[in-house]
Amino acid sequence: MDLKFTKPTDSEEKIELESSLVSASWRCGKAIAGLPAPFEVRTAFVGEGAPIKVTGKSENGEKLGKIKDAIRGNVFVGEFEIPEDAEVGDQVYFEVELSKNDLSGESERIPVYPPVRVFNLKWSATQVRRGDILTLSADTTNLTDGSEVTVIIYEYDRDKAHDKVIELPVTVAKDRIELKWEFEYQGDIDKIPTQKELDKYGGKYQPPQYFFTVKVESTEFGSKQESGLVEFKDWLVIEFKGLDGLARANENYAFELADGSKKKGQLDAAGKVRLEDIPPGPCWVEFPDAKSSTETQAGQKTGSGA
User: How many CA atoms lie within 13 A of 60 on its CB side?
Assistant: First the structure.
């Protein structure tokens, strides 16, 4: 935009900016029957809250509906549900109208594809340990061989504030997807709330658990944990030495683990014990005969002085 200033700079001037429809585009490369197709409209200088009307259509006369709303920040994002009985091969598009700005336009055409299903989402195990390699798999329908989809792994939260762990691309082959994922815990073990801490609030210990979804275009299949939850199991090594630096062989120990469970036993001749498949998080160990206790964490090796 070419602006010329010909008046003195010590006075206030009013400049009129020309509004424009910058783009009207789909956020996906194809419209899948039965799934939403997202779109985006970008404008310039139309004014905050400018009214917008978007009408979805197809080359064969299919009506996708109308959306009436307002522009915020010169951007409007929405979606049209593609009918499940939409004709495969039809081309869909949308028209945009900004009546107060005297602007209009339409999007590009994208083809309609048959309805897609992703089902039988499965882990190869129900528990996972550091360094384990898990296989994730799912069956599909109406996705051609070579189509790329995205597997998204989440850490489950009972309050539904699931944390995304990683996104992994995978290619469809013979109506199936399959990939391998090597697990490594990414969080801070010492920040996992223990049952001892949760007792103050009436809460219940929750170990890290994971589920995955499969994203096709803009739609995620499996968001209700259809894959099932795989649970993280950890390990702990304790080595106990006296002030003289010598191992306290066969010393009795008592653990309180992160979930509130307790374990008792004896150290070996080297003053060590390794606990496998324990709930991850801080835990407490006591050596009752030595009258010494300490707090430690699952997954860490530690040496203690009596």
Answer: 11
